[in-house]
Amino acid sequence: MYLVGLGLVFLILKFMEIGPVAVWDWWVILAPFALAIAWWAWADSTGYTKRKAMESEDAKRKARIERNRDAMGMLSNRKKRR
Question: Are both 42 and 53 inside the same structural domain?
Answer without folding.
Answer: no
